[in-house]
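Progress report, Aim 2. The chain analyzed during this reporting quarter is listed below.
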Amino acid sequence: MPDESSSSGESSREFGADPDGIRRTDAAPATTYSTALLTGLAARGLSDVVVCPGSRSQALALAAAALEKAGMLHVHVRIDERSAAFFALGLGVETGRAAAVVTTSGSAVAHLHPAVLEAHHSGVPLLVLTADRPTELQGIRSNQTTVQPGIFGGAVRFERTVAAPTGDTSETDRAATLAAQALRAANGRGIAGPGPVHLNIAFREPLSSAVTVPPAANSSGSASPSPSATPSVAASPLPPGTLAKSGDVLSPNLALFGGGSVADGAADRGGGAGEGETAAQSTDDTDAVAQRPYVSTRFERPSAVLDRGPRTVVVAGHASGAAAEELAHAGSWPLIAEVTSGARFGRNLVVPYRELLSDPQFGGRIERVVVFGHPTLSREVPALLQRAEVEVVVVAPTGIEAYNPGRRARIVATASVADGSADRHWLGTWVVASRALVDAADRDAAPSLDDGHSHDPAARARFARAEFAAVRAPIDRRMLVEELWRSTWPHDRLVLAASRLIRVADAFVAGKKIPVHANRGLAGIDGTIATAHGIASAQQREGMPGVTRVLVGDLALLHDAGSLLGGHDELWPRLQVVVGNDGGGTIFDGLEVAQAAQRDVFDRVQYTPHNVDVAALATAYGWQHVLVTNRAELDKALTTPRDLPVIIEVLLER
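Predicted structure tokens for the chain:
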């Protein structure tokens, strides 16, 4: 939490309404600029602002609240900046548009870094608005002051640091221009695609003045700044020791994404084009590009038409989307689709892909692999892509980095299949083998219907015992993920934490076209609950049906426990947190370290056991809690409608 020691500089003196319909009192430059910036963002499609309390950022927070009253924004308030950023990330995952997160200066900004990195590596739009100290307070050990420009390094598509506004009449137009640039960059244009954007805005006292919205603005809808206002924005750093003029942009981001335009250029220092990429002169936003002479080109990836000859498999990693399934279907090729790929469906799907990739009769005969998305859930896939005799084609329309573990893939924007006859024998052998492995592993043998319909008392008793045993069966990891999968439908959302359970789901759940998300950009356990909350809030906003279920291990729950706290008086969406509680980090039990280390040392520093009372944790945050021990209880917990969010705790053996 930031300190609360700074003056607000508020006054009750009132002026007339500005042209945008917002009535400002005392017109503090911080408030005027903040309102212009947020109004410009709202006019260009920003719908959500997540506010963290703080003194230096108060003008942004109060302006956001005023615009919410005018019906122009949705405002969410979070105490913890890390939770706030991941909540905004979840909003972006669901809507495909950037949500903004507002923080004060100092360590508050650093707490955003995990979500910024996840947004960067996952290609999720995110807008970070941070307040900063003015130039005269920099470098003198002023309270709550650090070097915020460039704090996110190369992870942002676009960055601007704005000097403290002074009330100059040009500042509102410059704010509108900056809003347009920032949203274009965050929502994705050019090779970089969607991702995080950082606007760092210095404010000096008075830090705010009251912002009120007259009834006319509430009834008439949002007011929009003129989109034609395009004054130039200064971008070159000032000489050392020079005080900035109000509204000056002090430092551009030198990220490899070349975000100076609108993330459609690649910085010269960012590395060369990959195989199959060509450089082309950028023609978009020439004024902004001119501010950065080191941004002169962008990469254009070619499209590929794939001949049918080589024995091919299609790999769909995280966030591939339906395009992977469509290509596999068009080519009559086996489809290896991870559980969060968005392509885990269709008749070409191979569920037990690990076993078949390890089999010389299947994986050993592969000649070409077409990769979509970001595969992260197996060792077999990267091993396949590193084989010298296997041709690798990576379909990556955007992103400077593409998944390329062998460093020799042909990277293309799109892929299609050439005309010709399909090798149905190749596909058929994979599908038949896959179904045989699935059938062999099936544990859901139903009680005999003949016994159930029999007039023989012994047969009917046998049927009843079998049926009772099925519903009273104790829960293991596989049963947990399969029941969760069966309970989820296309109008629901399923979010999976980076835990052992996501790998169990990937190994066993059948094909089903449902929305599944995980933070697989960096595959950390941070912010899973906050991300799911953001997804649920966006999906259910307009009265849409469905439940968001998030499957976490106990450590992922504890790591993000602060995100169980929502905003005061904010309605909770329908949200279930399903916790597989095995007392620690059992994912490490399957790694080499478990065999190499002494057991007591391993348990202490890797397994990290705990004795947290999850029911008490739920009660502390006002959540419902249900402890389930068998299949019938789990089914009931997953399908019971509830007025409050619920933690469903499942105790698992280590």
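Confidence is low (pLDDT under 50) at residues 4-17, 214-298. The radius of gyration is 27 Å. These observations will guide the mutagenesis work planned for the next reporting period.
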